[in-house]
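Subject: Predicted fold for Ribosome-recycling factor, 185 residues

User T.R. writes:
Posting the sequence so we have a shared reference for the thread.
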Amino acid sequence: MAKEIIAETENNMQKTVEVVKKEFSSLRAGRATPALLDKISVNYYGTPTPLNQLANISVPEARLLVIQPWEKTIIPEIEKAILKSDLGINPSSDGTVIRLAIPQLTRERRAELVKVVKKKAEEGRVAVRNLRRDANDAVKAKEKKAEISEDELRRVQDDVQKLTDKYIKEIDGLVSSKEQEIMNV
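User M.O. replies:
I've generated the structure tokens; pasting them so everyone works from the same file.
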């Protein structure tokens, strides 16, 4: 029973770290990457549809994204969706493809991005700690019902704490690498 709690907690902590990684990949660090457009939804015949399901997205140069829609009629909708997004990039279209030139980041913008990275990382750390609390509560409830011994309770709590430390350390590593990526000119 205790092993199930530990396994479930570890699985949820891994998912939390994956969410943090995904959040970081969608942050613009001065380099073009298709992940920048992951959160953009386009109004496609009245249905919000992810941009990557409507077009081919390529990176021909370090600071250029090219969006090639499968239907030419959807280009104005894609441009609207990009302008509405928080990317701060103006799309340019020639009727067949949309080009997004990724501007060089200013020092102020880099500092803002680092703050956003730290905020998202802290949200991830809080989620990991909440998972620790939930696991500890579940084990304490089992101990109260005399389903496990007090020694096993301590052992499981130690294991859960080790997991918590491991995943928080992993999030910290992600933060430092993303921070370096942002601050490199």
